[in-house]
Design a protein that fits this description.
With 135 residues, the protein is mainly alpha-helical. It is built from 5 helices and no strands. The protein has one domain: de novo design (two linked rop proteins) (Up-down Bundle).
Length: 135
């Protein structure tokens, strides 16, 4: 399989690692327990990398940024489902310890990636403080 570019992004690789780890955790649970919460956690974790890939494939800065924002939403959803699974005793503390650091690392990386998308001049303008009318 040839490289389309997104596979080399560290943020994408981390999203894949999170999705694979979530899959491994959910696979260890009973069918009834993993059905509602587990499926949702897997879908949201898988969606992070899928949105990064789709954003790259869209070909415009605006579309790419929109899909990275969607990926960030899926990351937060994954965190939600992990909390639900833990509170319902569907996952162990050790399993949470395997997933949570990936979630914590991926959030800032998604934000940094989002800031890096677009022409350099446009990014510099977005990062400047707005002018004030204080006289």
């Amino acid at each position: 399989m040839g490289s389309a570019g997104f596979e080399s992004l560290r943020v994408y690789q981390l999203a894949e690692k999170l999705a694979d780890t979530a899959w491994e955790v959910v696979q260890t649970r009973q069918v009834l327990a993993r059905d509602p919460v587990g499926k949702q956690m897997i879908r949201s974790a898988d969606s992070i990398g899928a949105n990064i890939a789709e954003g790259v494939g869209r070909g415009t800065y605006q579309d790419n940024r929109r899909f990275v924002r969607t990926a960030r939403g899926s990351l937060y959803e994954t965190r939600h489902w992990l909390r639900r699974a833990f509170r319902r005793r569907l996952v162990t503390t050790d399993q949470v310890s395997a997933i949570k650091p990936l979630i914590d690392e991926l959030g800032p990386k998604l934000n940094a990636y989002l800031k890096s998308i677009g022409p350099k001049k446009a990014r510099a303008t977005e990062n400047e403080a707005p002018a004030t009318n204080d006289k």
